[in-house]
Amino acid sequence: MAAHYLEFERPIADLEAKIEELSRLSETAAAGSLDDEIEALRARAQDMRREAYANLDAWQKTQVARHPERPHFVDYVGALIDDFEELRGDRTFADDQAVMGGLGRFRGTPVVVMGHEKGRDTVGRVKHNFGYARPEGYRKAIRLMELAERFNLPVVSFVDTAGAYPGVASEERGVAEAIARSTEKCLMLQTPNVAVITGEGGSGGAIAIAACSKVLILEHAIYSVIAPEGANSILWRGARTAGEAAKAMKITAQDLERMKIVDRIIPEPAGGAHSDPEAAMQAVGDAVEDELKALLQLDAATLKAQRAERFYAIGRSGLQ
Fold first, then answer.
1. Looking at the structure, do residues 245 and 293 belong to the same domain, yes or no?
2. C-alpha dihedral over 139, 145, 147, 151, to 10 degrees?
3. DSSP code, position 195
């Protein structure tokens, strides 16, 4: 499959096209005659990628967060969760595949795991509704968290959605109420919970499963109350660009850490999580394991008190 290049990666794409062309020529040229030149170009491409990703602005990070080749929920489950058993349905209306979840073992520890799944090809995206969850998706999440409490299991959430599904049927079935109930359950959960923003963390659709004891975020992921395009349309009637909106909204991992909205940034490989998914998922696993070890030492009352204090503290510094 051809690599997907973002707009700011065009110089890298051109260089890698040249590398590919030289590689083809080397097959017909004298053995080893082009090896040094190819290796030099590969080193240059890696340096360009590293430099580009070290200086991304908010809009470029938004593009990276939406990259179709970033690891998805099913990838994290495959890499980090053993003996995964998916649980489907909300026991009320239907099964929403935009939110998936179930039971498994995370590095030997039994856990409940859940998250948004966008799908990777056309069939998958339709099946998972592009990660836009309906009310039954969040009611499924509540059911999973109740199961975690019943069996005293920690919860790990992987967040990657542009937002909840805003369609008429979704509104008719009470999507706002479902999001509110899911957020409440996260906050009041009597077992440890850790959320990882792996790509987009959009609006209430994200916070419904991210109101956790610890909120981690990948280096080039974003977390926002609305998409930059939506903010530009609503606040400025389209008079500015989505890039200007992204900068003003402070949605990058670095901005969020400074404002204490997230607790920890997980570094990504040079070139983003999509350039080396295995390394990115390993880093996520290490960070989650580290946070869970500390949280598993706390009792239910302490977990709830610390979670409450964490969220009450957001924004206080701006009021002082």
1. yes
2. 180
3. E
